Amino acid sequence: MASLLDVLSGQKTETPPIWFMRQAGRHLPEYLEVRSSAKNFIDFCFSPEKAAKVTLQPVQRYDMDAAILFADILLIPIGLGREVKFIKGTGPVLNPIDVDGIKALTIDGAADRVSSVFETVSRVKSELPKDKALIGFSGGPWTVATYMIEGKGSPNKEIAKRFAYENPQAMADLLEALVVSSADYLIGQAKAGADVLKIFESWAEGLSPHMFERLVLNPTRDIISRIRDAGIDVPIIGFPRGAGLNAIRYAHETGISAIATGTQMPLDDFRCAIPENMPVQGNLDPLALRIGGDVLRKAVDRVLEDGKNGPHIFNLGHGVTPDVKIDNVQAVVNHIRGKEANYV
Ligand code: CP3
């Protein structure tokens, strides 16, 4: 069977390895059971035993080719001394940061303050079958900065973009704090046993080329050089979701090993623009996964077709949602492996 690490080393495989973003989540009853035993979402992320358990669930249930660490991109702001809450039905809530708040960030030891995540990584690693890969991750500096500045998710990130235009020095300081702490955090995960690292730059959409360079490209390149300077050589997947053509420079200039794409990216055309033989990951429409049936079967066939001319990792363009049916996830895994696929 194709392994994720083979594809990340540049091999083109007959069957792509498969895993899904948010594969451990509310669509799984076994996840909900563990979740209900935790005080809140953040405590859940900081409980190595519980987090390791749910990290392994999708590999056990679906035979996914990889497990992704169960944690969140908003743990690093906690390491930097900010308060983060997850409110049911609302999502993450932070106290919006200002120029003084940026000066007060606790960069030294930020990754150490979230180091229970490293224990989750080593627990998962010791239980994961040898032919499966463990993916560690952090948020991209810009994406995490948008939450720190705006205090919550927002549709177009206008407040964070304004802040970047109007306070260039404070923005540079915030990004630097995130670069240093995220690099340490990723290095810690790799040392604890992560086979692959992924940088979730989920809000890379709607930035001018100049802003993309300042807010996404340069900080990401800095994180990756820090990781490589620390002697960590695991593959790194970049995910500049929605970046459009800005993703081309991102693929060439940040030092990533592979690139994950959102739903709108035509994989085969995209290959022509990125470094030769760079593995691509993605980009099944999460809505097709929710709808299921023939819609999903056709969508899967199209992604397989678009991805087949080079190293390809099968995934969604964004995460699994709570309303997704277990049978449909299993059907996609079976389908791409040439087994009977019972879409519902
Ligand atoms: O892919 C994985 O399963 C790995 C773990 C992971 C989670 N969040 C677990 C989670 C990863 C990689 C993330 C990344 C993340 N977190 C992003 C970037 C990726 C993306 O989805 O675009 C962002 C923007 C966040 C911030 C965040 N965390 C939001 C906005 C929410 C609330 C939305 C929701 O679904 O309720 C979360 C909570 C969260 N993070 C859940 C999970 C499984 C749901 C928590 C629950 O209620 O059980």
Furnish the topology, listing elements before pairings:
Blueprint: H1 4-8, H2 29-36, H3 41-45, H4 48-62, E1 66-68, H5 76-79, E2 84-87, E3 91-94, H6 99-103, H7 116-127, E4 133-139, H8 141-150, H9 158-166, H10 168-192, E5 196-201, H11 209-229, E6 236-240, H12 246-253, E7 258-260, H13 267-271, E8 280-281, H14 286-291, H15 293-307, E9 312-313, H16 326-336
Parallel strand pairs: 1-4, 4-5, 5-6, 6-7, 7-8, 8-9
Antiparallel strand pairs: 2-3
Helix pairs in contact: 2-4, 4-7, 7-10, 8-9, 8-10, 9-10, 10-11, 11-12, 15-16
This protein binds coproporphyrinogen III (CP3).
Residues 21-26, 35, 41, 68, 70-74, 86, 91-92, 137, 153, 200, 202, 318-319 line the site of coproporphyrinogen III (CP3).
Question: Which descriptors would you attach to this protein?
Answer:
7-stranded parallel β-sheet; 16 helices; TIM Barrel; 344 residues; two-stranded antiparallel sheet; globular
Explain this structure to me?
The chain has 344 residues and is α/β, with parallel strands linked by helices. It has one domain (4-336): TIM Barrel (Alpha-Beta Barrel). It has 16 helices and 9 strands. The chain has helices at residues 4-8, 29-36, 41-45, 48-62, 76-79, 99-103, 116-127, 141-150, 158-166, 168-192, 209-229, 246-253, 267-271, 286-291, 293-307, 326-336; strands at residues 66-68, 84-87, 91-94, 133-139, 196-201, 236-240, 258-260, 280-281, 312-313. The strands form 2 sheets. A 7-stranded parallel beta sheet has the order 1-4-5-6-7-8-9. Strands 2-3 form a two-stranded antiparallel ribbon. Helix 4 packs parallel to helix 7 (116-127) and helix 8 crosses helix 10 (168-192). The longest helix has 25 residues, at 168-192. The structure holds coproporphyrinogen III.
